[in-house]
Amino acid sequence: MTEKKAPILAIERHRIATDGRGVTTLVGFWGCPLRCKYCINPHSFSEKTKPLLLTPEELYARTVIDQIYFLASGGGVTFGGGEPLLYPQFLKAFREQCGEAWHLTAETSLAVPWESVELAASCIDEFWIDCKDTNDAIYTRYTGKSNRQMLENLARLTTLVPPERIVVRLPLIPDYNTAADVEKSQEMLSALGITRFDRFSYRTKK
């Protein structure tokens, strides 16, 4: 994959109060470093998926049609996936296209190299961090990967951006963690200076 283009799964317009503030357009990227047991977007890493390859300029052309809504509501574009921070150069180039008026949000696991997080911090307004659990055993059993990279990146990110630009999602996951585990995670992350948390429970087919 070149830095010029990124694989896009979907572009969903006119979302309200679901992916950041105001009216947003959700842009989903293909590719994810995790393999979560209850993943709701397995097509985001399936080799059978055929994503649309777009340049930042092409994506801007598809999203600028809603600029009036973005400016009126304080909204903009939310990058999800998959893992959008797999394509930090693309995100930065998109910011150069849309300018500073749009509010750009990234929904990320932070399970990527620090250099990608650092570059994203220079162009993303708000980060929604998907932290399955701060307990490494729980996190590894659920995602298939250690949480060490995620936690290290999160700690370093708090030194680059103010706390109001970070939201950490802390799910209660049936068969994997408990309410007490979630409470411990929030206490640990609060010690880093994080003040915004999104706590919720997964609903499974059970």
Describe the protein's topology.
Layout: E1 6-16, E2 23-29, E3 52-54, H1 56-63, H2 67-73, E4 76-80, H3 88-98, E5 103-108, H4 114-121, E6 126-130, H5 136-143, H6 148-157, E7 166-172, H7 179-190, E8 197-201
Parallel strand pairs: 2-4, 4-5, 5-6, 6-7, 7-8
Antiparallel strand pairs: 1-2, 1-3
Helix pairs in contact: 1-3, 3-4
Number of strands: 8
- Could you tell me the CATH topology label: TIM Barrel
- Mean pLDDT, as a whole number? 95
Stretches where pLDDT is under 50 for at least 5 consecutive residues are none
Q: Structural class of the helix and strand makeup?
A: alpha/beta
CATH architecture: Alpha-Beta Barrel
- Shape descriptor reads globular
Helix/strand order, N-terminal first: EEEHHEHEHEHHEHE
| Number of self-contained structural domains | 1
The CATH homologous superfamily: Aldolase class I
The strand order across the widest sheet is 3-1-2-4-5-6-7-8
Q: What is the count of DSSP helices, taking H or I runs of 4+ residues?
A: 7
Major beta-sheet overview: 8 strands, mixed
Strand content: 15-25%
Radius of gyration (CA) equals 17 Å
In whole angstroms, the N-to-C terminal distance is: 39 Å
Helix content estimate: 25-40%
CATH C-level name: Alpha Beta
Report what the structure shows.
- There is one protein chain.
- This protein is α/β, with parallel strands linked by helices and 206 residues long.
- The chain has one domain: TIM Barrel (Alpha-Beta Barrel), CATH 3.20.20.
- Helix content is 31%, strand content 24%.
- An 8-stranded mixed sheet has the order 3-1-2-4-5-6-7-8.
- Helix 1 (56-63) crosses helix 3 (88-98) and helix 3 (88-98) runs parallel beside helix 4 (114-121).
- The model has no long low-confidence stretch (mean pLDDT 95).
